[in-house]
Amino acid sequence: MFRQILNWRTGLALIAILIVTGTIFYSQYLARKIAKEEKQKVEEWIEAGKSLINSPADADTRLASKILFENKTIPIIETNEKDSITNYVNLDATKAINDKNYLARKLENLKAINRPIIYTDPIDSSKVNRYYYGHTKLLNEVRYYPLVQLFIVTLFIIIILITLRSSYRSVQNQVWAGMAKETAHQLGTPVSSLEGWIEMLKEKPGNEKIAQELEKDVNRLRLVSDRFGKIGSTARLEQVDLVQQINIMVEYMKKRATGKVNFSVNTHGQQEIPAMVSAPLFDWVIENILKNSLDAMEGKGAIIIDISEEKDAVHIDVTDTGKGISKQNISKVFKPGFSTKKRGWGLGLSLSRRIIEHYHKGELFVRHSEPGKGTTFRIVLKK
Question: Do residues 129 and 259 share a domain?
């Protein structure tokens, strides 16, 4: 699926690049052609104007007049040898009358667009006229068209990529949920069978201690099965005391850690801190984070769980004195399959984030980490 999306992205990007590149080159070709024709029209307009002024009274001026009056699109400003404005066409006459600086501003704009066409009087060379001209609306549209097309193509690609990404995530979530439910289903039958065998074992004298220990392990398997069964379903959030819930998990993990690991829970003097959680799934998150901390410390160190109640949320910081996480790996720790351990699937933290974000609408992230000193994970639960 990922390769298909990558191929689609590459294909769409190449198509977009080809379309936009071809359009830009063709538009620039058209723009240069139109600009050349516009310059020629301005030159014809200048010659027509001079022809009307210098022609005898009985001369035929119909062609010159037609050329002058047909120019209704190209703005032109005529200046003298002192660069003072002497005439203009295709500009707003009303603004020119009411705003004294209107023509001066337009002149500066036209100077920035094209070089002037200079006309020197053949009789008196001291008389020089400069003709500054702009672009027609058609030329501007041709020049800006590639930008509009680029925007549309980019928007089109973004929409497709967002759709593909959403589709990929949906499929990924379905795979996660399907695998979890299938695991729960597969565990259900042997666990039920083991529970029956334990009951039979209890009936025989002398097996009480063995049955008790086996029952703990079977209950653990039942809890794991229940957790996997809840993945993909709507979690039922209930108000629980986080202090008590976390302390239970800490006591459970203490029994599975070496005596060289010191656990402490800081609640800032509060005996109870309520929050809406799914207890089995939340316990799973705490267990995964504590296991990750124990692995990072390699059997010795300290784990501090700090629970603080804010106005709109509860913050749970789990800090260890382990080997820490490098900067380049901080963004990867929640990705499925990422692990720095020789054993394990690298799914614990990824699954924990999904549980907190998807089912509890909270946040789970690395608040701080420094190689050789330790890591702090933060859970944010909305009140």
Answer: no
Domain that holds residue 294: 234-382
Judge whether 131 and 115 are in contact, CB under 8 Å: no
With beta carbons less than 8 A apart as the criterion, state whether 7 and 105 touch.
Answer: no
Six-digit token string for 178: 């399907």
Q: What is the rounded distance in angstroms from the CA atom of residue 307 to the CA atom of residue 268?
A: 8
Q: Which two tokens stand for residue 277?
A: 């959680």
- Please state the separation of Cα 380 from the chain's center in Å: 22
pTM above 0.90, yes or no: no
Quote the percentage of the chain above a pLDDT of 90: 18
Q: End of a domain among 119, 141, 163?
A: 141
Q: Closest Cα partner for 88 from 49, 39, 41?
A: 49
Other Cβ atoms within 10 Å of 152 Cβ, number:
11
Secondary structure of residue 107 in the 3-state scheme: helix
User: What phi, psi does 277 have (nearest 5°)?
Assistant: -140, 165
Q: How far apart are CA 249 and CA 214, in angstroms?
A: 20
CATH for 298: 3.30.565.10
List the Cα angle 378/379/383 in 5-degree steps: 135
Mean pLDDT of 43-57: 81
β-bridge partners, 273: none
